[in-house]
Amino acid sequence: MTRLTIFSAPKPFTNPHINIIQRNAVQTWRHLGPDVEVFLMGDEPGMAQVAAEYGVRQFADVRRNEQGTPLVSSMVELARNASQSPILVCVNADILFLPDLISAVRKLTTHVQKYLLIGQRWDLEVRQIMEFTDGWDARLRADIQARGQLHAPSGSDFFVFPRGLFTAMPDFAIGRAGWDNWMIYEAKRQSWPVIDGTPSLTVVHQNHDYSHLPGGRPHYELPESHKNQALAGGLNHMYMILDSDKQLRDGKLRPPPITLVRSIRQAEVWLTPADGRRSGIRWSLARQMRRLRRRITGSL
Questions:
Q1: Fewer CB within 10 Å of terminal CB in the chain, N or C?
Q2: Taking the CB of residue 110, how many other CB atoms lie within 10 A of it?
Q3: In 3D, which of 178, 222, 211, 156 has the Cα closest to residue 12?
């Protein structure tokens, strides 16, 4: 039985750059070893060929919304039903994993039974198909140290959780804003520890443009993102890595360090009206905290 099932809903493989970075991503997942199986969700152009070429499973029957975008709830359900892995990993199709993911999950299982593992990513410009010969992970780490940039702790591109969690989800559109924030909010609502794995994980986002989206606009400007955010319950449910309960550092779960940005975020959450109102003194102060946080981190 595999330990992890990694699943994703790639974009069409027709754009040359998207084709490169998605192939790189799938290859890193495959090269994590025999403890891992990989599922691709959807039937976008080129996906069947990639699945067959790399020996991973494709699920073309994923449910979609009116715009044809796969639903996260269906992806999780398909992965759970088709796998016996105790751990599920939902990830964006441009993300590279290194073997430290496996060791991090092993360490977590000795500390806690229910959890959500997230973390910051390293942004890296990648324009070529990677070579997966001996030492590929060491070469990637060296490249990250030379050219990578750690992304602000504002969102998450991967979610690691035991298979029994997230059994009921709104029908979020994948690849649009809001669903990732809800995952963190829901874990905290359910009292599942939200664990920031940044100190123990090296996770890489391969930079790309938004030419694959309508009008080439960033995903958070699209109507599907607005619908996701509404399904999530509004702005007061838009949680992020800064809202994590613990950090995985040196093989142990430790309290997150107290930083200025984290303190500002805590004030922002406390001040945001629970009923979603966008008026009044509390809302005004929460908005000021949000602007200050964004100014410091340079993120949304």
A1: N
A2: 9
A3: 211
Measured between alpha carbons, how far is 150 from 43 in angstroms, rounded to an integer? 32
The pTM of the full predicted model, rounded to 2 decimals, is: 0.94
Distance CA 77, CA 75 (A): 5
| In the chain, domain spans | 4-254, 260-297
Q: Is the pLDDT at 27 greater than 60, yes or no?
A: yes
CA distances from 82 to 68, 89, 264 (A): 23, 14, 42
Residue 224 · residue 67 · CB < 8 Å: yes
Residue 33: pLDDT band with limits 50, 70, 90: very high
Domain 4-254: give its CATH code. 3.90.550.10
Q: Enter the tokens of residue 176.
A: 């649009």
Which candidate, 111, 194, 191, places its Cα nearest to that of 159?
A: 194
